[in-house]
């Protein structure tokens, strides 16, 4: 809609107005020998980690405004696929990886060395840090949750659930813990007691992924019903749904100021929507189903990775970052 609103948008200081997305570019990084399962930015937004089926993680120095070649460091040691990874929210050089080899490892991104590891009871597929950096939560294929004390790097709690547990998350203060389930619900637990507080009937099919708005107002849930629901954190009520995707939603992420949400699936685009209006403001085309999307915590740069194949039908092992001003 052209008109007065447009000129108003352009005069807003420092805030990215939606039309800018159309002029931004994507860069591709040849990262791994097999497909990339997970991408994550560190807390300063200067490094990106990628985890792959090729049993390695890599750490990339990516300059938001520069165009120097990205340097990378390989993290070797896992004996199976690196399914998910996350950075210490308080330490820009500490990275945790979860693997199908049953171990969780903590890495120093300066040296590429594994500083801590612990073996758990199953194939690990989900991992997240508590916002204060003291605990790590890990979910495995057997629907078991383990909480790890980061200082001692030993399990604090273990709990097996009788239903399918998918992605897990803490709220920004670390007092609430969320589980998305195969029953279409979100289980909200108090932390650290892990006592059940709410069961939110969120979707008509399994809930696959969850993201917490960095401002702390909302959380979003992506489901097998191809919808993304947005929830008010204080009221625990659904405020809107995003309906652009047609396939099960695999991955979602809020940008740094909570203004935009990216969501992706087997659709051949990533949807970027305005959180307040629910309207799509940009779509990034992609060639395959996406496994991971994550916004940078400081800039409007979106990292994404999926099931890309090359012309010989083997995994490309790439990830991409959208949001650069030059190609």
From TrEMBL:
UniProt-listed InterPro entries: Tex1/THOC3, WD40/YVTN_repeat-like_dom_sf, WD40_PAC1, WD40_repeat_CS, WD40_repeat_dom_sf, WD40_rpt
Keyword Repeat: yes
UniProt keyword list: Repeat, WD repeat
Segments annotated as WD repeats: 29-63, 75-117, 200-241
Record has Cell membrane as a keyword: no
Xref: SUPFAM superfamilies: WD40 repeat-like
Region Disordered, residue ranges: 1-22
Domain of life, source organism: Eukaryota
GO biological process, one term: mRNA export from nucleus
SMART domains: WD40
Gene Ontology CC terms, in alphabetical order: THO complex part of transcription export complex
Family, per entry: Belongs to the THOC3 family.
Record-given protein name: Uncharacterized protein
Lineage: Eukaryota, Viridiplantae, Streptophyta, Embryophyta, Tracheophyta
């Amino acid at each position: 809609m052209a008109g007065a609103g447009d000129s108003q948008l352009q005069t807003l200081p420092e805030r990215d107005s939606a039309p800018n997305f159309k002029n931004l570019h994507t860069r591709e990084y040849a990262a791994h020998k097999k497909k990339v399962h997970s991408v994550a930015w560190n807390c300063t937004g200067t490094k990106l980690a990628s985890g792959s089926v090729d049993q390695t993680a890599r750490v990339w120095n990516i300059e938001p405004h520069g165009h120097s070649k990205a340097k990378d460091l390989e993290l070797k040691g896992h004996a199976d696929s690196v399914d998910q990874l996350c950075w210490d929210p308080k330490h820009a050089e500490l990275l945790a990886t979860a693997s199908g080899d049953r171990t969780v490892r903590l890495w120093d991104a300066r040296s590429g060395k594994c500083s801590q590891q612990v073996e758990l009871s199953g194939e690990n597929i989900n991992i997240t840090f508590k916002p204060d950096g003291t605990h790590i939560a890990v979910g495995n294929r057997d629907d078991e949750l383990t909480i790890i004390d980061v200082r001692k790097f030993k399990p604090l709690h273990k709990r097996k659930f009788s239903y399918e547990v998918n992605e897990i998350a803490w709220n920004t203060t670390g007092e609430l813990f969320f589980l998305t389930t195969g029953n279409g619900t979100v289980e909200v637990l108090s932390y650290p007691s892990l006592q059940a507080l709410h069961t939110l009937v969120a979707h008509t099919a399994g809930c696959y992924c969850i993201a917490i708005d960095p401002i702390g107002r909302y959380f979003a849930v992506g489901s097998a019903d191809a919808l993304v629901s947005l929830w008010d954190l204080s009221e625990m009520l659904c405020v809107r749904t995003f309906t652009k995707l047609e396939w099960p939603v695999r991955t979602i992420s809020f940008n740094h100021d909570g203004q935009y949400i990216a969501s992706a699936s087997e659709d051949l685009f990533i949807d970027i929507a305005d959180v307040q209006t629910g309207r799509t403001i940009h779509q990034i085309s992609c060639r395959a189903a996406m496994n991971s999307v994550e916004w940078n915590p400081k800039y409007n740069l979106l990292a994404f990775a999926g099931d890309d194949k090359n012309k010989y039908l083997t995994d490309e092992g790439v990830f991409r970052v959208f949001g650069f001003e030059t190609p």
